[in-house]
Amino acid sequence: MKNFSPVVLGVFALCAMGLWGCSQQKAGAINAKMRDLESRYAKLEEDFRTLYAAHEQDRAKLAQAEEQRSTAEAQKADLTAKLDSVIHERENFRKQITQRTQERDHAQTNLIQFHQDLKTLAGRIEAALNSNPPNTGATIIPASRRTQ
Prior knowledge:
Elements: H1 6-24, H2 27-131
């Protein structure tokens, strides 16, 4: 045993002290720490699954909202086109109403003038009848019966 060097003896003593130190630790403390870490890991995994499910739901809602937006934009474009055509029709109707009103006013003016002419003619006929002596023997034949 003379061949043992102090370095080998120091290494052997150090290993023995390490084994003794490891055996002195409380096994319950390590197990408790491992259970705590495992429970935290399980909770984090559960939180991750919950967040991932919420993320997928939000992604589906976003896709649905994008679809609704594109549908609404298409409807807006259709309504804008319809509005333009309705505005054009309205302007045409306004022009027609103005034209028809002018025609009506012109016809009414002509009718009033014709009415006044008829009154004047009726007055002249009455004056002629009152100025002619009655029963002169002249017969008046309407133009429609002259051919008979």
